[in-house]
Amino acid sequence: MEKEQKPEVWLCGPLPEVPALLQPVAHALLQAREEVQRYLHGFPDHLLWERPAGLASVGFHLQHLTGVLDRLCTYARGEALSEAGLAYLKAEGTPPAEGTTAEDLRLLFEKQVENTLQQIKQTDPETLTQFRGVGRAQLPSTVGGLLFHAAEHTQRHVGQLLVTARILQAGVLR
């Protein structure tokens, strides 16, 4: 029996506790989470680090999605990256400990989406235009700019991840 297709998250109405100006950010993150769940269900672990035609691996995208959300939220709070955050950044794209599965990496991404949504819910809309420095160079952004970028960057990488996963599962370009 075919599952009933539900509308995309942004067509399901406002999310409780999310400030109105940040609804699109939350919708995009929830949509990304749903798509990763749906399209990576049962993804074979032996393909996780494959790079068809030199593309970034599914494993890299999952690590990067998790790491970039954490980094952008850190900057949006006006904080510098911790040593752990810097170490995570340096390790992105490197297969983690033996036995780490696609499911493990997917669950880490889902946890980071949840953490990001909690931060969004706690963000005062009055702070959206406040300056926030990005990285060691303290490049100029704002709270709103960082949170918007978290959503659009996540969507971009989810799209790339899904195409790479599809190519690998079809056995094309290996």
Verbal overview:
There is one protein chain. The chain is mainly alpha-helical and 174 residues long. It is 54% helix and 5% strand. The chain is built from five helices and two strands; from the N terminus they run ααααββα. A two-stranded antiparallel sheet has the order 1-2. A hairpin with a 4-residue loop joins strand 1 and strand 2. Helix 1 runs antiparallel to helix 4 and helix 1 packs parallel to helix 5. The radius of gyration is 17 Å and the shape is globular. The two termini are 33 Å apart. The model has no long low-confidence stretch (mean pLDDT 93).
Write a brief structural summary:
The chain has 174 residues and is mainly alpha-helical. Helix content is 54%, strand content 5%.
Sequence-ordered SSE layout with sheet pairings:
Layout: H1 23-40, H2 58-76, H3 83-91, H4 102-121, E1 131-134, E2 139-142, H5 143-170
Antiparallel strand pairs: 1-2
Helix pairs in contact: 1-4, 1-5, 2-4, 2-5
